[in-house]
Amino acid sequence: MSQDFSNFSLIFPNSETQHDHYNGKNIPDINMFVLEELGLLEVFSLKNSDLDEYFTTDAEVIKYRLDVFRDMLECPEITKTLNRLIPILSDIMELRRLEADSGDTSSYLESITEIELYISCIETLYDGLCPLKDKLKSKSFITLAERIDELATSDYYKDLNAKLSELTNRVREIKSVTIGVNLDAQLRPSSAGVLSINSESFRSGDVIEKILRLNFKEDEYTCIANLVPFGKKQSENQKTALSLAFNSAINDVYHQSLRSWKKIVQAYVLENTDFLLNLMPEIEFLVKGTDFMRQLLHKNCALCIPKIINAEDRCFKATELYNPCVALKVDDEIVTNDITFDKENALIYVLTGPNRGGKSVITCAIGISQALMQLGMFVPAKRAEISIADAIFTHFPTGADDTIDKGRLGEECARLGEIFDAVSKYSLVLLDESLSSTGSFEASYIAAEVLAGLSRVGCRCLFSTHLHELAAEIDNINARTAPEGGVTIDTLVAGIEEGKRSFKIVRAKPDGKSYARDIADKYGLSYESILNKINTK
């Protein structure tokens, strides 16, 4: 073997990055609760592991995975191959589990089954990946394809195929077993054993005729009497016991072949099967992630390979950004927006606008894009430049009733306090309608304090809110924090045109009255409209 594949990974470029990850290094604080709040788990979830196990802050790992996903999107055959591989690997795992539960690892038939499954794995990968060699660009799949080619064309593999063919033919030839039973003086069975294993099935015959002629030797495969345990009244325990007895006898007959067979299994097959079994969680992650992105492409939604920016820059720039979860749910044309967080303009934004005007949708879109990038996946935008975050924190409405101990406002403040316990300047903080459980005066005061604190931290933050009074305080907050090194806070507005929500996000100063005026005009509730109604009565 030209290379040690015991630690081979499809999603880590080398054993060092893989080792660091599984030892807790380079892992951001992005948990399943945050992913649920962002809505990502509705469209992208895993059965055999949790999605938050795959996040990384290592730019090398992210770039490596981006190449892997690009190969999978450009070559659908890869996904088809991996989907065919998964049930085979699952069967191997189940077979090993059964062996472990029974404590019996010497079964001849199970050994053959495992070899057959292993050969199926290699054939599936060889047929699916090797024809794609010239198309593959990722180091991950190029290395795997070379390894499979090496295995499939090796002398070991050829010998294994020949041995498998020989032994399986011997097993498949078994059609019947001749049993000998010794009787004691009272004609009671005293011992029994297998006399021969036959390639022909026995036949039932005219028993009375054969007894009357006493001509038993003319046809050794014709039954003269049924064995009692195979009667209709046989219990399940009796059937099991009899089957175990026959399997044990067959294993005894092939004991010598089995010994050499197991040697082959242990020296060669187990090692190469283990390397494939270890890939199962990664395969599911890659297949599900590719399916998710392919669904977006089928709806003509843009996806891009993000440019990874230095973490110190704390940058998030996306052109024609959209929320992929919403895009997969609706048939209407998706509204896209350009969003920029950087030190030159602003790292913190207060987003205001009408209810159901797209504030929550864009807030989640930013969080999802950051998360996807740190999974090593494409971003839902035409172009994107994103700095790696050490954490994503969300503070969304819980929808719960007031708690007994704190009340809802107290609960909201406690959750905000927990964010400040862990946040750093490299974090992304997303606040959606925070502090909505209290009056606008109290909420605006607390929110201003929170924004001032986040400004001093220096992190990227989007605060989506109905508090138009808060947006009016931004200049005062900036004046307060700038001398102390705080980052700039600015405002965004969810647009509304002629009383209709446009879902476009623009960088502008909010004018709460304009929203109210447009809505009032739409429903005929402006002062002029009301007067007109009164006067026309």
Helix/sheet category: alpha/beta
Radius of gyration: 35 Å
* Poorly predicted ranges: 400-405
Major sheet summary line: 6 strands, mixed
What is the oligomeric state here? single chain
Q: How does this model look, in words?
A:
There is one protein chain. With 537 residues, the chain is α/β, with parallel strands linked by helices. The chain has 2 domains: 15-30 and 50-172 and 259-285, no CATH class; 302-511, Rossmann fold (3-Layer(aba) Sandwich). Helices cover 50% and strands 14% of the residues. It has 19 helices and 14 strands. It has helices at 15-22, 32-38, 59-74, 76-102, 108-129, 139-152, 155-172, 207-213, 236-253, 255-277, 280-298, 324-329, 359-375, 407-422, 440-457, 468-471, 474-481, 512-522, 527-535; strands at 176-183, 189-198, 203-204, 222-223, 307-309, 316-321, 337-341, 348-352, 383-387, 392-395, 428-432, 460-464, 489-497, 500-506. Helix 3 (59-74) crosses helix 4, helix 5 (108-129) packs across helix 6 (139-152) and helix 5 crosses helix 7. The radius of gyration is 35 Å and the shape is elongated. 34% of the residues are buried. Residues 400-405 have low confidence and may be disordered.
